[in-house]
Fold:
Amino acid sequence: MESNTKEIVELVAIQIKELNRWTTSDMNGSFTFKNIPKGSYTLQASCLGFEKYERPITIERDITGYKLMINRSSLGLEEIIVTAKENTNLSSSSKIESTALEHVQPTGLADIMQLIPGQITLNPDMSTSNQITIRDINTYDSNNTNAQPDNNSAMGTAIIIDGTPMSNDANMQTLNTAGGGTGQGYSTSGQGIDLRQISTDQIESVEVIRGIPSVEHGNLTTGAVLVKTKAGKTKLFTKLKADPKIKQVALSKGFLLPGENSGAVNLDFDFTDSYSDLRLPSDKFQRITGQLGYSNTFFRSSTPLSLNLKINYYNTLDDQKTDPDMLTEEIYQSTEQTAGFKLYGNWSIKKTWLSGIEYNFSGDFEKQEYYQYKVTSQGVTPIPTSLVAGESVGIILPSSYFSELTIDGRPYNYYGTVKGNITGRYGAIDNKLMAGVEWRTSGNNGKGRIYDITRPPSGSNTTRPRAFSDIPASKDLSLFIEDKVNVPIGTTKLNAQVGLRYNNLLPIGLFSTDGYMNLEPRVNITYDIISKKKSSALKDLSVRFGFGKTSKNPAMIQLYPDKAYKDQISFNYYPDLIVVTTKIFENTTNPDLKPISNTKYEVGVDLNLMGVKIMLTGFKENIINGFNWEDNYYTFEYRKWNELAGAGKNPEFENGDILYTENGITKTLAYRTDRLFESYNVPKNNYSVYKKGIEYVLDFGRVPAIRSNFSIDGAYYHITKIDNVIPFSQRKNISYQGERFPYLPVYAGNDGSVKQRLNSNIHVNTHIPKLRMVTSLTGMLIWMDKSIESWKDENGQELAYALGDNNEKQHGNFTGDGFVYVDPIGFRDLDGNYHSWEDNYSFEAPYNFMIKQYMSYNYKEVSNPFTWQINLKLTKEIGNWAKLSFFANNLFNHRPLQLDLRSGYYERRNQSAYFGAELKLTL
Structure:
């Protein structure tokens, strides 16, 4: 029952933690547990709108008639938590409960990441896609816009809502993978989840797993974000939120259905309107989201079975984008709609051979439409219109014309998992064995890219229209097993979690595949050496260790890239006749494409020293086989007819010959065979990220005299990103002696960058229960911020060099303002022969044209000075019916100028001062 009013609280979820035994209270607030082994346990209780309850309890056999008092969530309580709670029992993670969520005032899920150690606060921005990464250096660009995270890291961050992983794998909204990979995308295809489709007002709690996750979580690399949405009885909540760029309205209500044990229904609605710049109306973003949920528990007194059914909807409303500066005839339309369902729950069977079953079945269906009608200006250009290989007559495009492009996507995703567990206490040992199976399917029934090939949109020169519905669906089968054990050893305790996950991408049988199979072992161990020792300065001491492998499958756009159409003008007698040679690569897939994989290591120590809680975590992550789009080169051989001078020649293309008339005589035009290097993009595992660092949290506890809590968190990150792991080629678009350049240089891999950052967030949270108010003042300090470009060989030797006074090569330590160079490791000729690079080639033509040249500042370390900013948050309850919140980022607008040596421009560090407020009404 509720602790103050003594009112009965229905549908409270109650659990015996060590045994994983659970039930829910009935309409009278009663609950029972029977046949519990004698011993000491932890009793937990949770209910929407109430504080979490956790107490030690001694059980002889049954629990009946137990009076459990829970507190309704309120700032009037003596203790509240408005920061992330660090969980270091096994894998490192951060839990953000509802009170902390409300205090942060997030517009989207990305805003919640500011509570995670090592992250910095970024101003909210809904005008562009929101993606997140874990253990990465989140930053912003000089235009004060949040920089998009690394595609592979965002793709490898799993977003799991109520046990269902979100999927972006069937997103094909891009124009031309053969010519630009996913760089010409009109959404986040081949990237991470766009978090703008998730309303934070539907969320009850969020857990961010930074370390080694349980094997039940797969298809990820960097970590997982576990979101739990609301379920249960609540009053009617209305939220009004406003800041300079975002306006938001939200409604939510949870109510019990009439009748005994009929369950609860939850309704949530959100409308958001956002501009990146009020002067640019074409950049607006509007959305509505809604969720309808039903929850109930059956057979409470015997074998409780929970059932949760949730239906969610998301729709963008900014269909047609206009701007006074655009041509009046131009049209840009973008629509995205998603409808999905989830059916999940838990069945407590209470058998010796099976304690319980968890199930989750879900599906979502999306409609993605992009339409543009715009002016394309590219000069008078001959283009092909053939859909088959060979020579054909082309057409001449006007210098300016209107082109229409529609990209119609209909992604769908199905997910299902069933997990069984055996939980029990064997003497003093608590053990939970869990095993399960998981199935994922992603496909796209869209019409795909639609346009008139005689009036093609810009950027479509190496592709043709394509129906997405012709592309096979992606399927993934996984099996997993895990054992979790808690072993007392004298006055100490050992906790271990050991599991194995088996993945089969594109399975044709349980252990046979058309794709890729792998195993992912994962281990987490915690040893509690000292626990709750009151008479010592060192009251608690635990050490942790973790190791695990994780992987993320390729998206459909990487598994099934576009055909490549390559065209060369063989004859041009403008405007009478254009002959084009077309070469088609039907299959541009990479049969050797593997999932991204991450090998993670983690060590940590947690202690309580004289009342100060200290958590230190060291980690190392090796992410390999990341996805890149790489040029695949070949020699294009085609006929090149001689130029035909003068008017009135009336050329015609017949039976493979060009016939023309001269002085009344029909003649055949001569030709030669020409060759050149051409390429098309293919997906490859040619990207790596190596992370290492230390995360820390120091909680100094509460100072009662000023009702304030003091804590510090932060991290040191050292991140190396390698853009090209393996050697790659890059064509030289220059002429040599009047002809095309005859060689294709090959460069060594391992070109990338190294970034380092050390930051701290100093939190002062002041809570005054009598005023029902809490304020948070955060000092965001960046002690070190370094970056440097590098290009090293497989042995770690720097390949970039400068030239000395006598043209000697000097590697590394570039101090001047001149140039640095990178030699190829070899080159290919037009016959396909490979030639190794010789040192003397650096100063000989034509070989020296293949040397890459950069300004030396590209290879100098950039070290930004210390910077700081102050952020403020305030939440005040007004009676039992209203809650007013306010936030201000960079309260003093501290934005020092810093010269960027690479660009030569001054940039403002920190983001601009930003503020907002929200009002929540409870009716």
Summary: The two ends are 21 Å apart (CA to CA). The helical segments are 98-104, 151-155, 177-180, 556-559. The first strand starts at residue 13 and ends at 16.
